Amino acid sequence: MPTISRFEEIEAWKTARELTNLIYEFSSQGDFSRDFGLRDQIRCASVSVMSNIAEGFESQTQAQFIRYLGIAKASAGEVRSQLYIALDQSYIAKGQFAQAFDLADKALRQLVRFIAYLKSHPPPLGVREKGVDYLP
Question: Coiled-coil intervals in this record (predicted)?
Answer without folding.
Answer: none
